[in-house]
Task: structure prediction
Amino acid sequence: MLDTLSNAFVLFATWNNVLVLFIGVIVGTFVGAIPGMTTPMAVALSLPFTFTMPPVTGILLLLGVYKGGIYGGSITAILINAPGTPAASCTALDGYPLAKRGEARRALDMALYASCVADFISNLSLILFAGVLASFALQFGPAEVFTLILFSLTIISGVSGDQLLKGFGSACLGLILATVGLDLIYGTNRFVFGEFNLMNGLSFIPVLIGLFALPEIINYFMQTEAKHEQSPLAGAGATLADFMGSLKTIIRGSIIGVILGAIPGIGGAPSAFLSYSEARRNSKNKNNFGKGELEGVAAAEAGNNGVAGATLIPLLALGIPGDIITAIILGAFMIHGLRPGPLMFQENIDLIYALFIGIMLSSMYLLVVGKFSIRLISKIADVPHRILFPIVFVLCVFGAYAVNNSTFDVMVMMIMGLVGFAMLKLEIPAAPFLIAFILGPMLEDNFRQSLLISKGSLGIFFSSTICWVFWTLTTLVIGMTIWSAIKGKPKPLADA
Amino acid sequence: MLLRNRDFWSGLVFLLFGVVLIVFLIPSGVVEPKRIKFAVLSPSYYPRIIAIAMSLIGLAICIGSLKGKDDDFVTSTVDLYAMGKVVTVFIVLFATAYALPHAGFVLASAVALVVLMALAGERNPFIVFGVAIILPIVLYLFFTKLASVPIPGGILDPILQRI
Result:
């Protein structure tokens, strides 16, 4: 064991590895912060640079970009309500209201600390529990994932505030919009109406930007000049007390992230929303969630970043890539003649441990890069809103286009901006729409895949202990919501 | 100007959209395969459930809003100046989106920046034109050269290609 560790350390401890990992985290953070520039895009663009590098160096570069990208998505979500990734949209729920109150720096700090702690816990879980978690994750079939997503959707009641019915209506809109495109099972068109751009469905990023960033820009022009000039980073950073107050939430969110991250195909968004939901349920300030609660930022970021190390569990332990990013990393392994899976732990254990050392170091890099980037960003955010909002609009246009190189996506963003503005004026909460739109495809796909497996029998949704656990939790939450509504509490929701 | 309460209008939007989905959009927009093994696997099954739920939610919101007291109804005046600005902003946003493939991203964004900053009240011409010229070019170079995203240059393409 000690021999293996010392060999791994020798393999890792080169200036190239240390530097490349650092560059990867910087690039990832920078790219993740640009609306429209997704983390998978950044990892894919970095892949060609790894061809000439040694295997450890190349894979560390990709891991650095990946980890930086996950954190970077939260920066614009907090500052300008334009999430760089779907998972970061959960961070925007409380991050942006905090920024509007002049506490953006506090929110950014908390997002960073939660990200680093969650990333560290996730990495530790990868090193210590890869085998156990991989075998647990394999027990998740479509029925289990369906019940898990259904449970995650109970957060809708929590983010609807005192507009519960409007929140449900908003969620229905999100679910309907998520059905646009080719049918998963039969491959027939749904709501395409002859527009081939709709066959792949609506991209997440243009919809998210349109729904959140554009209404803010449009609404700005309706406000009086006095409201415009407040700097979003006027406040101080997060204190130790803030961090300690949210530590329990961060650890809980990290564990949720680790468990969901180990399940192939789940990703960061459900984890962020589930962590947020649990934080709200257990918080003393649950009524403040969605209005600028620091704990909400911590929960979302912990859930999101808790996934980062754990997604490597099925990849390294079983050779199964859980998402696009790990698929690209799998490609990098194969380019260097390596095949992740159980055999790799026997044949290339030095390399695995060297990667583990690098992964642990990346958590520290994230803290350094994050703190530095917050300082830089604080200067950008001091730009007066009369200049900043037009700039944000142009960033949104480039960002929406860059996702698929399509001006159609820019038009989608504009239309969603119009919808978002109407929702703002009618006081329809946008967060349930967003959650349903992100989780909707997973819900439907797993629902129908389950029924395909069971030949139409609904019994499959009650066929395992995991399903029953999630049904029980969902029923409890719904029951408590109804009970609270009957009792007439102002914020009756999801307090199980 | 007296406005009915927002809940009523929200409910009506959900109700009408749900009904339009059930009556028109799902039958005409969801292509059903010739053979379906089980009814629950039909491509229209899931959207139909959502549409029914949305209609019922809309109806519940409408009924709930009609039961509200007079105090719940919102009385507000519409600021015509602000409304005019918002309409102009919408026109600028959609005109920009429409102009992107024809005029190119750099030119369309530059014009949008000038108009939006002027509308927002920025009067310093150095800032307005400086930002409007530099930002789109920087973004164009970042996306095309570093991120390998082919941004349409439009009528400025011959000039941008030389940078």
